[in-house]
Design goal:
It is a single chain. About 35% of the residues are buried. By secondary structure, the protein is of the alpha/beta class. A five-stranded mixed sheet has the order 2-1-3-4-5. The protein has six helices and five strands.
Length: about 160
């Protein structure tokens, strides 16, 4: 867990609620319901939301957008010691980007099973890659059950429906 004794640092739960809020705001705008933060030493360095459809870029997932913004903010490619806090379980691509950037830990609110059919066909090879990466990551990736983790998906379906 983040901060066990430091009252000035946000808890994992607070950070996850912020990621969910970002996802809810993105969903309310009719965009994919995903949000993420990059946090180091209890400080939010950057945030990101899924902009893939807006910018016609299949790599513009929330976690990747947050990592890109954090790297720009710190003028570095090395985010060692940072964590990614995501509204939803990162896909294989996002997980890999976090590893390349040196992210120490990933925590997420919603397991991938919460994601409704958003119009794409799940690719078995990508599902398998995600499972393999999750297995290799050990304790560095953690699902933390968070109240409201499913709300961004509900809001998105209502918005586009």
């Amino acid at each position: 867990m983040t901060n066990t004794n430091d009252q000035n640092q946000p808890s994992d739960g607070e950070l996850l609620r912020e990621a969910i809020r970002l996802a809810l705001d993105n969903a309310a705008a009719g965009h994919p319901p995903f949000g993420a933060l990059v946090v180091r030493d209890g400080q939010v360095i950057a945030t990101g939301v899924n902009t893939a459809e807006q910018v016609s870029d299949p790599t513009a997932h929330a976690e990747i957008e947050a990592v890109r913004a954090a790297c720009r903010e710190l003028n570095t490619l090395d985010l060692s010691g940072a964590i990614v806090v995501s509204s939803c379980e990162p896909c294989a691509m996002c997980h890999t980007v976090c590893a390349v950037a040196g992210i120490t830990r990933i925590i997420y609110a919603a397991p991938k099973e919460f994601v409704p059919d958003l119009g794409g066909t799940p690719r078995p090879d990508l599902v398998e890659m995600q499972a393999v990466l999750r297995g290799l990551a050990g304790d560095s990736i953690q699902h933390i059950a968070t109240p409201g983790a499913d709300e961004p998906f509900t809001r998105f379906v209502e918005t586009i429906g």
